[in-house]
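Appendix B. Worked example

We walk through a single record from start to finish. Start with the input: the chain for Type 1 fimbrial protein, Burkholderia anthina, length 111.
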Amino acid sequence: MKHRLFAASFALAAALLASSPSFAAGTSGIIHFTGMIVEPPCSFALDTADAAHARVHPDCPRPASGQVAFVDAASLRTIKTTTFTQASRAIALPDRPGNDHAPMIAVVTYQ
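Next comes the structure step. The output line below is what the pipeline stores for this chain.
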């Protein structure tokens, strides 16, 4: 039984490898794109130099504003929401009960 399974697998793999160039040679065409490519206006860096008071630093090379919602990764419950602009210096991560360092998700919404 194992010999037949191996032979069938080998035959299928050989057929796929042999057919790939014929598929690649036959593909051509034009892609039409409507809309725009959007680059996020800000990037965010985590500063953990002071573990007791970790912060997120927004870096916005052009005018931007929005909100950052910190969400508990396990319960998906919003812990804290704060606003930011391109002039914001640092956003403090929310304090957790018992100084818990459980994973969080930062959801950034631009306005």
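Two observations about the output. The chain is about 25% helix and 30% strand. The CA atoms of residues 31 and 37 lie 15 Å apart.
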